């Protein structure tokens, strides 16, 4: 467990203790971004590059991209916590429960347990899904170049994913548009929603072979259909 460090907000001058989050490396060891001694900076706008940091696992030496440490101040300011030298920023980077009968989960290459991040905002939902996809084996997760009319897109080699972080259930049109995007890219299409799916969207997803997940507020995606169960079991 990392030691808490004092962080002073440059806007209101309030000081509070902050401990960096821990994320699971592929080898199973916990990885925590090392904190720098420089002052935190208010987040005034966001880019994909600024939201991720490359951190090396002390156990196996592997470098992976993890969410840039941030802290919310009581004054409303979001602070970006600087990381120490050696961890450099990288230029890429209540839902309904599933009612289907899950398939047996017998992955041929067992993965360490997924470590979720609690969802308090839309950004948290995107982070949770990105971490989950990386846990499944998609290493080059990055933001889609074009925003869609609904949700936020993530892509990786052989994958297009849609994340709907609002309280609106995903519709049949949402699923079909994602499937068309994946077909054009010759990639697997996967949908993640915080509020589930309308009935005809689930039926259409089964017909098109689109894995559907709901993301609970702990940040853990849960399979909604059999194709999602298969992806969970087999990974990338």
From TrEMBL:
It comes from the Bacteria. This is Restriction endonuclease.
């Amino acid at each position: 467990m990392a030691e808490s460090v004092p962080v002073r907000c440059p806007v209101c001058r309030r000081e509070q203790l902050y401990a960096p989050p821990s994320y699971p490396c592929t080898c199973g060891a916990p990885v925590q971004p090392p904190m720098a001694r420089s002052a935190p900076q208010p987040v005034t706008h966001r880019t994909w590059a600024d939201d991720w940091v490359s951190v090396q696992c002390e156990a196996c030496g592997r470098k992976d991209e993890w969410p840039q440490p941030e802290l919310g101040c009581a004054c409303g300011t979001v602070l970006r916590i600087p990381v120490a030298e050696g961890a450099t920023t990288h230029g890429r980077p209540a839902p309904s429960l599933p009612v289907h009968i899950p398939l047996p989960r017998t992955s041929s290459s067992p993965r360490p347990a997924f470590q979720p991040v609690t969802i308090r905002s839309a950004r948290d939902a995107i982070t949770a899904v990105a971490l989950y996809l990386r846990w499944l084996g998609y290493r080059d997760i990055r933001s889609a170049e074009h925003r869609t009319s609904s949700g936020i897109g993530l892509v990786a080699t052989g994958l297009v994913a849609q994340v709907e972080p609002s309280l609106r259930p995903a519709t049949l049109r949402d699923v079909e548009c994602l499937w068309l995007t994946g077909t054009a890219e010759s990639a697997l299409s996967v949908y993640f929603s915080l509020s589930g799916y309308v009935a005809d969207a689930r039926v259409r997803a089964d017909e098109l072979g689109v894995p559907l997940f709901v993301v609970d507020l702990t940040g853990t995606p849960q399979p909604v259909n059999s194709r999602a169960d298969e992806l969970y079991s087999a990974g990338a």
